[in-house]
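[[Local backbone shapes]]
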Amino acid sequence: MSAPTLDEVKAWPATVGVPKAATALGCSKSQLYELIKRGESPVKVLPLGRRYVVITSSLVRLLEST
């Protein structure tokens, strides 16, 4: 899967799953899960039961700053 453009990410819903966010960040989902587990995620993450969702606006801010 290729990395989405910033405009594509901006069109995403308010939250997305970790695998989709990892694609935008250019890392694997396992790397992002590890960062979340260690409390070092570069984006805001919400726990929902046994899974996590990434706040899209946080992802956009990070991508705009690079």
